[in-house]
Amino acid sequence: MAHDKASTSAAPPASNFLRGIIERDLEAGTWSQRHFGGTPGDGAHHLAGPPDPAKIRTRFPPEPNGYLHVGHAKSICLNFGLARDFGGVCHLRFDDTNPEKEEQEYVDAIKEAVTWLGFDWNVGGTSHLYYASDYFDFMYRAAEALVGAGLAYVDEQTADEMRVTRGDFTTPGTNSPFRDRTVQENLARFRQMRDGELPDGAAVLRAKIDMASPNINLRDPTMYRIKRATHHNTGDRWCIYPMYAYAHPIEDALENITHSICTLEFEDQRPWYDWLLDKLADMGLLARPLPRQHEFGRLNLSYVVTSKRKLRALVEEGIVSGWDDPRMPTLFGMRRRGYTPASIRAMADGTGASKTNIWLDYAVLDQCLRADLEGLAPRAMAVLDPVPLQLINWAEVFGSADHIEACHAPAHPQRPELGQRNFGLGPQVWIERDDFAEVPAKGFFRLFPGNKVRLKYGMVVECTGCEKDAAGTVTRVLARVVPDTKSGTPGADAVKVKGTITWVGVHDALPATVVLYDRLFTEPQPDAGGRDFRDVLNPKSKQVVTAYLEPGLADTPAERHFQFERHGYFIADRKEHRPSQPVFNRITALKDSWSA
Ligand code: ATP
Ligand code: MG
């Protein structure tokens, strides 16, 4: 990650070198002669099928060993997006070749997250959902074929010996004493590995390439290891498992993938990827043209950690409430927080694809969310830090202390079709504590003794003072309502005011729990330079308040978005919200409060 690049804007059009590669491939007809057998399979299977209806094939290949995070969203949007834009198909493939860490729970969660993001692996009635473990038989057959061709051997050096004979960046490796076994010996030994006749770790199968290669990945890479472990799909059928770098190219080839897109750290693996597929095609096991690997830079988001180990620590140490805590960068966390699929896609697409790892400012995600919700989310008034405002001349003006003045507001200022909000103005309303100042600072235009403000969509009031408790805390603000100033009535603007404040009537307010979420860390790169991310936790990343909302928000279903006027964007929490006991999460404020 020597060449990480900072990027604080997602300004389109983002350059995406992968699009250029695909355009050139399509123009050159590189992939146009391929056949597809309808399901994954070897070369003969595909050649027997009709021409591949998909112009390109990409894949998103998660390992089902954890929950997807914002970095995976980047990869999903890229792979599914390229397939969509170029008449192709994107496969969802569970890369489940490692028996130990994989679970059905993660498989289900990953499917749910990809669907939620807005992508579909069902194309024209065919499901392109695949499991790499379904290819174990072919992988084994391919390994035997390589052994048979003298291109692979069973190595019984110890792990330590292998480390030493591999060499390093400056020293070439040296050949294993087992490298020159005969084909028959290798085949017999490999079958013993498969049949459970050797203990775990006693031997590995290696490709026979070049122990002196300047690329360490070509120094006889390991293909198979012995590991007695129960696999979630194949159970105890196998006690040898393929290495990722051997399995992955084969998975791509069996699925007829054209563009195998991965992150930069796999660049040095590409020669091994190509060597392997080329040999298997030479032997007639795979059809040409073969898939090609292309690497792009990772997406990192500032103020976020995405390493699975660190995310797990946050959950297990109780720093957050779970994998779907609204402060987590997992897709489940982001969903619960209120980020929309469209906002995440916009952020991902806005960063394009490049050959360097990207650091994207978290503020870009918030901008994408605001851009998405501005035109969609209904508006509502909410008072998050309430103090009562008493209109002391109410009975005198309206003839009764119980009078309620009906008020209206558009659900959305630009979308009349969303209808009207209705609420009442009475003698007591809730206002924000910081909308009142006993002694106003310069430039403060809201409530202070002697000043007039408009209660938004209501009437103009003139502040007369306040009441305080023994500690000096304001317990009630006092004002007089100014007659004939109701919003929307003739002459309402005759009284000029400099400030307008939001409010909710005490008589019809809906009490709610509102959780004010903010960034989990105070530093843009929480784990930079080996720092312990626990040292830079933001103590204010979660603040729970009891708020008052407009009465129209009663019976809101979970996951409904709103813009609370002046406060930002909020969502009814997916887990804890009940229509009768509302819980709203703040997604983001209306403006970025973190910019320097
Ligand atoms: P991590 O260790 O960060 O959780 P991973 O690569 O181990 O990620 P996989 O399940 O193997 O997790 O990832 C599936 C796909 O998502 C891979 O193709 C991987 O390259 C891609 N991916 C993971 N993180 C990022 C990221 N930050 N930016 C872009 N792509 C990513
Ligand atoms: Mg991985």
Q: How would you summarize the topology of this molecule?
A:
Elements lengths: L4 E3 L9 H12 L14 H5 L9 E4 L9 H16 L3 E6 L9 H14 L4 E2 L2 E2 L1 E3 L4 H13 L3 E4 L3 H8 L16 H12 L9 E4 L14 E5 L13 E3 L1 H11 L4 E5 L6 H13 L9 E5 L2 E3 L6 H9 L14 H7 L3 H10 L7 E3 L1 H13 L4 E2 L1 E2 L2 E6 L2 H5 L6 E6 L9 E6 L2 E5 L19 E4 L4 E9 L5 E8 L17 E3 L1 E3 L4 E8 L24 E8 L11 E4 L3 E5 L10 E6 L8
Parallel strand pairs: 1-14, 2-3, 3-6, 11-12, 13-14, 15-28, 17-23, 21-24, 26-30
Antiparallel strand pairs: 4-5, 7-8, 8-9, 9-10, 16-27, 17-20, 18-19, 20-25, 21-22, 22-23, 26-27, 28-29, 29-30
Helix pairs in contact: 3-12, 8-9, 12-13
Bound molecules: adenosine-5'-triphosphate (ATP) and magnesium ion.
Description:
- The structure is a single chain.
- With 596 residues, this protein is α/β, with parallel strands linked by helices.
- Among the domains are: 150-244, Glutamyl-tRNA Synthetase, domain 3 (Alpha-Beta Complex); 302-374 and 511-596, Ribosomal Protein L25, Chain P, CATH 2.40.240; 379-508, Beta Barrel (Ribosomal Protein L25, Chain P).
- The protein is 25% helix and 23% strand.
- It contains 14 helices and 30 strands.
- Strands 15-28-29-30-26-27-16 form a 7-stranded mixed β-sheet, with helices on one face.
- Strand 4 (122-123) and strand 5 (126-127) form a beta hairpin.
- The two termini are 26 Å apart.
- The model is unreliable at 1-12 (pLDDT under 50).
- Adenosine-5'-triphosphate binds next to helix 3 and strand 11.
